[in-house]
Amino acid sequence: MIVDARGDRCPMPIIRLARAAAGANPGTAVTVLWTDAAARHDIAAWARMRGHRVVGEEVAEPADGHQAWATTVLLGGAGTTTAATLR
Prior knowledge:
By secondary structure, the protein is α+β, with helices and mostly antiparallel strands.
């Protein structure tokens, strides 16, 4: 599942991620495309607090001349406590 939040400012990437995750099953991978630098830390914090796991980050296709990244979150189920740290 892809959430394209390129060009969105905080907190919209997280709000869009949360909406997508709400209707998804545990084990679903959600990739968020983003340009706002705050999203890197916000996505990791959101995942940790909700029992999900960040499983990857890579450079994505730029949007409107701005560098973009793609962060993938693996949705967990009840009782999942795994967290990831991004640098």
